[in-house]
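Q: Hi! First time asking for a complex rather than a single chain. Here are the components, and I think there are two in total. Is that enough to go on?
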Amino acid sequence: MSEFFQQIINGLSLGSIYALIALGYTMVYGILKLINFAHGEVFMLGAYSGYFLASALGVERYSASGQSFPLGLALVVLLGAMALSALLGVTIEALAYRPVRSAPRLTPLITAIGASLFLQNAAVLLFTPNPRPYPPILREVRFTLGGVIVTNIKLAIFVVAIVLMIGLHQFVQRTWTGRAMRAVSMNMDAARLMGIDVNATIRATFAIGSALAAAGGILFGLDQITINPLMGVLTGLKAFVAAVLGGIGNIPGAVVGGLLIGLAEQLTAGYLSPDYRDAITFLILVVILVLKPEGLLGVVRQEKV
Amino acid sequence: MTLLALERVDKVFGGLRALRGVSFEVAPGSIFGLIGPNGAGKTTLFNVITGVYRPDGGHVRFDGGEIGGLSPARVAELGIARTFQNIRLFRAMTVEENVMVAGHKLHRAGLASAVFRTAAHASDENALTTRARELLEVLGLKDHAEDVAGSLPYGSQRRLEIARALMLGPKLLLLDEPAAGMNSSEAFELERQIRFLRDELGVTIVLVEHNMSVVMSVCERIHVVDHGETIAEGTPAEIKVHPRVLAAYLGQEADPGAADEETAP
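A: Yes, that's all I need. Here is the structure of the assembled complex.
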């Protein structure tokens, strides 16, 4: 039984990382009907931003002298990387997507794949393809709860993800910009005629989605211990599946989808075979596309003429 | 004294001349009707006025300035608001939120103040809510403020579009078939509301409508288009008996003898 709870804990912490990334996919899709394939690379570059920020703040000095990195500085690393990635997301939107926004939907999709490949290869060139050990922004502390091993890192992943998701929910429901985002996603033309600055709203969407992906990147680095320039490919794809599973365009759906994919992966790895942990995600994708293509929380859209 | 003036406006879609030299003037504080058979170009005129389409010829002047070719957001900012023939609400939002979305002029405090919930943000949100409630009351939707917009009956959705458009604080309101899908008592209530908007809120109104009893009852002047061209303009009493209008609606050729007495374009 403790084995089962162990898998649940690990699944939820992995799943909350997927959820953070899936939110970016789903928000952008909700507004532009665009699958932002470069989002996995924003996640990867977010992890690298955290890596370099932590180095700049002297994380090696602390670990060499056996001290743990101050929590305040860890927070600076997290927020700094989120800010840098927000900037990156806005730049990608301005350079790769805005020029083709009114083109047929296939064009921005291909541009997105291009942006993704460009960023992957730029990262290989700049950071070398070798995996890097992630700096100990949080020093691991283990404790046992009724036979289940819990680390402070797993807890931190869960807490940071929950705080960010609640923050996003409040933002979207309560603020002026959040209301504008919902309006643009429901009807862009009407929103424009109601005086909403659609371009600024789209920029805000990319900034927020990218910041959440960066947080996911740092948490992923802490959890998986190493990072590499291609880490965004598979993880990004799984987060995309999470968004589709929950119902793409639907914010709570992305969270539910992320957690379910994380759990499914851990349970498969634990009880079936670790070899199938990646396969299960895509099996879920096939099943959901066949049985409920609108996703668990999605609604069937009626196209109106 | 005119608020809105169109001068010889042309609009071409490929080989189709959707508007050919349409001119009319709307006086401030008036209720102006724009009628014509299906496909006559009424909605195209609205789209040219609101910046959705750029005119291919002629001028659109509003409040003394040229607005032809400006962006929809800019036109909205200058004081022209509209509703749509096919309803375009933010369906998954509440009725009140739909109205609040259009209230950006009332909302000055920035993002940071929203996140940190400053007093400026709270007072902006209060001003928005208060104004939204007032407008919902005017349109008879106050009791539905918390309902999801998409769940309202059709007639209420049309009135919600009007409330949302008014939130922009417009000088000119363009209503595209507001009575479509309304029964006769709803349409009668709409007439009262349209007059109220003009009398109490001082909004000038241009109305496209197929429900002739609504048009004839609320409009002071009526402009008639057919096949993208002006065929008549006058008071409701004049339009009712205008031979070219009757011909256009009944699908007959106008009797050339009868047209002489009327103000042909």
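A: Residues 37 and 250 of chain B are 9 Å apart (CA to CA). Let me know if you'd like any chain examined more closely.
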